[in-house]
């Protein structure tokens, strides 16, 4: 039996805050990530945190299958 591909959709909204003082990586960001399948969302200030949230959401179906 072949494993079905995992399909996940995310909405990512980036807001670059221009009026604040830029840090070492440029102007600060505000990030909203929404996992379409579950409706879970996360707000953060770094793209790395948004990517970690998406990775977590990708693991959810795999964990449910193994239980």
Task: Write structural notes for this entry.
The protein has 67 residues and is an alpha+beta fold. The protein has one helix spanning 47-66; strands at 10-16, 29-35, 41-44. Strand 2 (29-35) and strand 3 (41-44) form a beta hairpin. The chain is elongated and about 55 Å long. The two termini are 19 Å apart. The relative contact order is 0.20. The mean pLDDT is 84.
Summarize the SSE layout with pairings:
Elements: E1 10-16, E2 29-35, E3 41-44, H1 47-66
Antiparallel strand pairs: 1-2, 2-3
Defining traits:
single chain; three-stranded antiparallel sheet; 67 residues; alpha+beta; 3 strands; elongated
| Mean of pLDDT | 84
How many beta-strand segments?
Answer: 3
Instruction: Give the overall shape.
Output: elongated
Tell me the distance between the termini: 19 Å
Strands ordered across the widest β-sheet: 1-2-3
Helix count equals: 1
CA radius of gyration is 15 Å
Share of helix, binned: 25-40%
Q: What is the chain-wise order of helices and strands?
A: EEEH
Low-confidence stretches: none
| Class by SSE composition | alpha+beta
Strand content: 25-35%
Main sheet makeup: 3 strands, antiparallel
Give the gist of this structure.
By secondary structure, the protein is α+β, with helices and mostly antiparallel strands. The chain is built from 1 helix and 3 strands, in the order βββα.
């Amino acid at each position: 039996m072949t494993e079905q591909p995992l399909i996940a959709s995310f909405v990512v909204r980036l807001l670059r805050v221009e009026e604040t003082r830029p840090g070492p990586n440029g102007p600060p960001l505000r990030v909203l990530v929404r996992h379409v399948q579950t409706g879970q969302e996360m707000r953060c200030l770094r793209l790395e945190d948004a990517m970690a949230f998406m990775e977590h959401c990708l693991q959810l179906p795999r964990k449910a299958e193994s239980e």
